[in-house]
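hiii so um. not sure if this is the right channel but i have a protein structure encoded as tokens and i wanna go backwards to a sequence. like what aa goes where. can anyone help
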């Protein structure tokens, strides 16, 4: 299996590059309490978590996964290189040696995806090179200007298909009222026939000022929603979430129905707009609209 190049600086590769398989295997190594080898609690200490935070993580079914997600969300130092350094420092070289090929493969795929997004458009004699036109940049949404002006939005809506009826209500309340906001709803605004991941990345990073994440039990099972959320978080330098969310793109989690599953830990540091509380429903749309209208 081809891994990443030896000249790659893993300290500059964000933790988001590691996929679910590697994180699950890390849990298999670190979750069991071990009186001999270092476990997840030792790793969490090295990551900078406090004693009380670590005690709270003990209630998690998969504390290793929770710690990784929270570290990724709040620390500018959370990188693949730092993680490998911590595992080495706590004398878990067995974990590093076993998972290194898969980690290298994840890093390779992550860097390739970044490279694809940054590659310049192919120039041919028949096309005016002064105005680059690629499928990723123009003609991806219904209202894109054929002359080159991309359609811009106030917010990208991250949702799963089971929650689309609530997205329709969001359209009515935020677009078809005095708020006059412009939402990017994938099923309505994106033209068919393009690569989903490329288009989604383009919209979140360059076309939308913010992202609304519709949280539900079904959202937690959606690979597309998982990608969109983690990609938006990865736009923040060092993967650090400050009071303004990921970089200039404030992530706004929205809950509109009661959940049976726990709220995603990767978003728990962000303020939630909760539609399930009867006492605050009257203010829900006003608060959400105001958040999306800020400069």
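sure thing!! here u go:
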């Amino acid at each position: 299996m081809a891994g990443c190049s030896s000249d790659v600086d893993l300290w500059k590769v964000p933790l988001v590059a590691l996929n679910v398989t590697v994180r699950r295997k890390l849990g298999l190594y670190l979750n069991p309490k071990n009186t001999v080898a270092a476990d997840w609690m030792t790793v969490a200490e090295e990551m900078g978590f406090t004693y009380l935070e670590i005690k709270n993580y003990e209630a998690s079914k998969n504390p290793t996964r929770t710690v990784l997600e929270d570290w990724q969300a709040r620390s500018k130092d959370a990188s693949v290189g730092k993680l490998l350094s911590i595992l080495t420092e706590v004398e878990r070289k067995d974990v590093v040696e076993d998972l290194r090929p898969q980690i290298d493969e994840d890093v390779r795929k992550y860097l390739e995806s970044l490279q694809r997004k940054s590659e310049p458009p192919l120039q041919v004699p028949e096309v005016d090179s002064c105005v680059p036109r690629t499928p990723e940049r123009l003609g991806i949404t219904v209202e894109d200007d054929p002359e080159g002006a991309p359609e811009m939005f106030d917010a990208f809506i991250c949702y799963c298909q089971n929650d689309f009826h609530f997205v329709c209500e969001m359209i009515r309340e935020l677009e078809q009222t005095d708020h006059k906001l412009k939402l990017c709803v994938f099923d309505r605004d994106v033209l068919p026939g393009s690569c989903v991941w490329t288009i989604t990345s383009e919209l979140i990073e360059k076309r939308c000022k913010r992202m609304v994440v519709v949280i539900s039990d079904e959202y937690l099972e959606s690979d597309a929603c998982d990608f969109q959320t983690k990609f938006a978080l990865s736009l923040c330098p060092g993967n650090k979430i400050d009071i303004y969310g990921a970089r200039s793109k404030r992530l706004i989690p929205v809950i509109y129905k009661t959940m049976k599953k726990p709220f995603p830990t990767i978003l728990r540091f962000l303020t939630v707009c909760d539609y399930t509380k009867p006492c605050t429903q009257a203010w829900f749309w006003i608060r959400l609209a105001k958040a999306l209208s800020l400069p």
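oh and Residues 93-118 form the longest helix (26 residues).
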